[in-house]
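Example record

One chain of 593 residues, shown exactly as stored in the release files.
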Amino acid sequence: MPLTLKQLNAASPTETLALLDGLYEHSPWIAEQALAQRPFRSMAHLQHALAQVVRTAGTEAQLGLIRAHPELAGKAMLAKSLTAESTHEQSKAGLTQCTPEEFERIQQLNVAYNERFGFPFILAVRGPRGTGLPKQEIIDTFARRLDNHPEFELAEALRNIHRIAEIRLGDKFDYVPELGNLTWDAHEELARYSDPGFAEKGQLTVTYLTEAHRECAERIRLWMEASCGFDEVNIDAVGNVVGRYHGKEPTAKYLMTGSHYDTVRNGGKYDGRLGILVPMACVRELHRAGKRLPFGIEVVAFAEEEGQRYKATFLGSGALIGHFNPAWLEQKDADGVTMREAMQHAGLCIDDIAKLQRDPAQYLGFIEVHIEQGPVLNELDLPLGVVTSINGGVRFVAEMIGTASHAGTTPMDRRRDAAVAVAELALFIEQRAARDGDSVGTIGLLNVPGGSINVVPGRCQFSLDLRAPTDAQRDALVRDVLDELARIAQRRGLRYTLEESMRAAAAPSAPALQHHWERAVDALGVPVFRMPSGAGHDAMKLHSIMPQAMLFVRGQNSGISHNPLESTTNNDMQLAVDAFTQVLRQLAEEPQP
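Predicted structure tokens for this chain:
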């Protein structure tokens, strides 16, 4: 019989330890200490309690936990002395059927890994979907993680142990995250479409109005119509896919939600798309139940957010707030194709773009689900985070100008080194941004034109990207950085040029909508964690005309994004769907404006 929370909460400590036996390999102390958190409100609450025991246990206990795990395809597997759980997992990943070459490669990696880190390589081989990773992906991950810093790798091993425990707990409860699986599979399906030059390499790239982009739009449109039960579905004049699920009354307002389906070059599968597919799963369930809410739901799959093809970003969400500049139509991509030509080729009606602007009086607001794109939730062992504000940012392109001179004959105190001056500024930015706690500053581009190994750099071109959760905090950061830039140049006898290339206002979350997300997360038994968003999102565009708030979902692989390693799990996707459903329920219980 499957385990239940009621049974677990009512059992004696001894019985509970027996029920949870095998979650963490040969480490019953974790479940024993987690019992102090009973009664567990949900599986997610139980998982977090277990993870927090490990988190606070100290390095020696954590190393003991890691070392309690067997090597992949190691001696214990050959001797058939693995625990039942490990036997099942390694078998499901095909490690019991390795070719001689695969087995030899894994053994080499095991030796190298143990020599470098002093503990066995840990990987949740059943993967983010729970169905098992391909052997080659296991081997590739093994080799990649050999290059990690030891402290980082210890944390990564523990994160994989928690994922193993999460899957094993699901087995004990006979729990299947059905909507999480549905959403995960939809991401895989959508990732089949990729631009030429990238598709052949197995890389995901979907840029605005390419064939792959149009195929994604059509796939989303068909899902909305055929699978999810939206009442109206169309592809609008900029390529957004818009699905509307009507409310109980024809005059009902709408809750808008969504995100973008374009990608960066060689990007990940979840950036943007998670915010489309999660609400689609919620509408699907409403439709299957024959249920209408006091408000309608408008899901928008925004056609463009990344700015990869043309020098214009947020084309999809910008059009909905009336921010589409007709001059953009004459911009050319790298192949000389204008935006106008691309739109005409895609069959879009350019004359209708102005008609896309929404009337905010017809909406309750805008909410967006998005993968975090950072390491914070992953490091805290938290599946969800409530966004407090989308950072405002300012960008500059600049050049420091000194004097190029002979590297061997110019004394150190006589140099006018442009690159060293920029390096000094970079260190100041690192220190100044850290002083705020949640400000960030980056010099992402740094170039010495015509540089030579034996020449003191006379010029250094660089960029500045400065961000903070409020405009006032951002402006204070900018002011301090530019003042320091002037001081460095004066002290070193240099001059510089500086051009502002972008300025975006911060987008604080609407308190009421943020509170709905907080209540939803708490209802799932997950600690409510509030955090700013360092990245820009479609929500920051909608912020100018209606209230908005966002929910972040934990990413795997230390939360990396804009990268093929971007990942999340079926369980975390399920929690996102559940949280979204909770918000819909809360809004339905409120008096309608």
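Notes: The chain has 21 helices and 16 strands.
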